[in-house]
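Q: I'm writing up a methods section and want to include an example of the input and output format. Could you take the sequence below and give the corresponding predicted structure tokens, formatted cleanly so I can copy it straight into the document?
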Amino acid sequence: MEYLTTLKTLHILSTVLLLLGGLGLAVWTWRARRRGDVEAYGKLLRRPLLFVWLVMGVCLVSMPFTGWWLVHLIGWPLGQTWVLASSVIYTLGAFSAWWLLVRLNRLRKAEPTGLRFTLALAVFSGVCFLSIAGLMGAKPV
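A: Here is the clean output for your methods example:
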């Protein structure tokens, strides 16, 4: 397999794993809350789901490096609008995902308060990563 193809596959796989992990956690939480489980937020950071969080973290950390490497190998200038926009959107999305994880950890330890803001953080980070995936797919040069 060619080096560029391998790197592109790795980058796309990490994007898909990040988005599917976030969607899976969101669906799991929604279904648990619908069943009336008041400790759904506490269970969100426990063992089987911790693996999902770790995989999402590895994907979140690896994407800027593989993305930069791809841009470097292909020879695109870093000053292209879609590359710069995706970098800014990634920074905002990663920061909101980190903030979401901190808030969920606080929810695990105490009474759930400010759930609307937590939901807003989750939606915002999801929209950020979906828009980056759209920019990667469209590549408006």
